[in-house]
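Problem: given the chain below (248 residues), write out its structure.
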Amino acid sequence: MLKEIVIAFQSWSEANRFIKEHKLWKWIVVPGIIYTLLFIAGMYFFWSSADDVISWISEQMRIENWLQKKRSEWLSFFFVMMGMMLRLVLVLFYFSVFKYLILIIGSPVFAYLSEKTEAIIDNRAYSFNWKELRKDAARSIRMAIRNCGGQTLYLFGLVLMSLLPLVGWITPIIALLMECYYFGFSMLDYSFARSGFTRQQSFQFIGRHKGLAIGNGILFFLMHVAIILAPAYAIVAATLSVHKVKNS
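Solution.
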């Protein structure tokens, strides 16, 4: 798996050169601006609502009154840490929902960019085919909905786990790796669809190459330093990495 994570990282570096060489910037900047505006607005409201959820849970469980009676610094520390871990898991959950909305809304653009990237790699002319694009976009939407449902169940379990002392402190790391895996899978599936993979075959391929999905997802998160570049870079890098693994 480590080797595949390295391949995914290398593909992001190659994606930067690939985009510059083949002048794909318009497919990076325009979706990127829309994504950035939605991301900033969404995360503002998500963070505010996460605070409201934490406050509501604390009030229902009467944690503040109980801690004041106990007057224990260690207990206070544990509950502060628990609140932080729960808040981080909730923010990752909100980001997950937002991410899937972007995957659904942007599926036609992502499908086009992935197909165009593969055509350039194979040194063949790309002819736009609305029927194929619509088919790939529809598959991407179904996959995003399916992954969203599965990931939500796991994240719900992590929310409960985050309430446990000590053990709950690792939940943000687990949630982040899960986010990386599911997002990377969604980006890689565009290439799988063009290869004629059924959804079951896609799951089997990813089962053998989890590192590709996790590596692509990790760099997607890191690219949020420059938010505008994240989604389109992810799809170009995913296409390059699948091409590399298939040929090897």
